[in-house]
Amino acid sequence: MNKQIEKIYQLAKEINSLNYQRAYKKLEKIGIYPGQQIIIEIIHDHEGITQSQLAKISIRKPATITSILSHMEINGYILKKTDEKDKRAIRLFLTNKGKEIFKKIKIQKDEEINTILKDITSEEINTIYNVLSKIKNNLARE
Question: Is the whole model's pTM more than 0.85, yes or no?
Answer without folding.
Answer: no
